Amino acid sequence: MTGPGRVDNSPVDLPLIAPMLATPGSLPPAAQDARWAYETKQDGQRAVVRLPGDGSVLLRARSGQDITAAYPELLPLGDALGATPAVLDGEILALDEQGRADFQLLQSRMGLAHSPGRAARRAAQIPAHLVLFDVMHLGRRSLLSLPYERRRRELEALGLDGPFWSTPSALVGHGEQALRATREHGLEGLVCKRLDSVYEPGVRSRAWVKIRNLRSEDVIVGGWLPGRGRLTGLPGAVLVGQRAAGLLRCVGGVGTGWSEAERRELAALLRAAATDTCPFDPVPPVAGARWVVPRLVGEVRYSTRTREGMLRQASWLRLRPDLAPQEAAADLPDDLA
Do the strands 128-138 and 165-166 form a parallel or antiparallel pair, or are they unpaired? Predict the structure, then answer.
């Protein structure tokens, strides 16, 4: 029993809370700009952080999987709030030399929850960093029904900034400037959050809007992969390349962006350009690939490049019949060649 002047030290049964998700979109209208907060979109692994207040920490991925053991450097976070229990929302990152999130680096840390020895070795080589941006439960209170603006104040008051975690501030208003800054600094994008929005567990809400910065480039088609199911007989994806040191180097596969008619048109062009010789050097290790004479030029949209120069999250924009292969796809940067 508790009463006046008595502290309730009984254990708190923290709820399981699925992360709220953002809807792809664009900046809010200028007239509503002051009603929104803007956060940098991070390229990492989403994590719900449970701090029971007993010195332990539990990290759950968006799927609900326990990923705590994959990130041993985050275990000291369990003591950061003392005996105050909390459920926090954030993103686990791996940072490059410029301090920017690098998903390719993070991939070497993911999937090690059942290999604590390997996880510890990787943590020493590629330390993770947890960016916190919301609090859903604090002490004995659920904060789900509080507006975002109130939850952010509660989060920032916790002062959670440590060797492997931080609480970056959010910008209220000035959305156009915030988006421009993410582009200028080569960041993934922006998340716009309505100041009065409640936390909706597991919901892809229009109160949170994500804007991904995408780039576009010309590429040369050098091969394709047959589609399956309803795409049988059609290309499921094309393999595309760009020049590097005078050679055509494969920079990835593209499997989205066509209408049905466009995919059929592309299938006819690929059949007409069929060859038994792979035009890429080196030959990409892609099982079942069919090669074509590298004369088709296309424009693709993508988010970032890996360290090896491969295009991430690429989608097809259009054929470029106005460009000859020698005119398209400028040479890869020297550090990617």
Answer: parallel
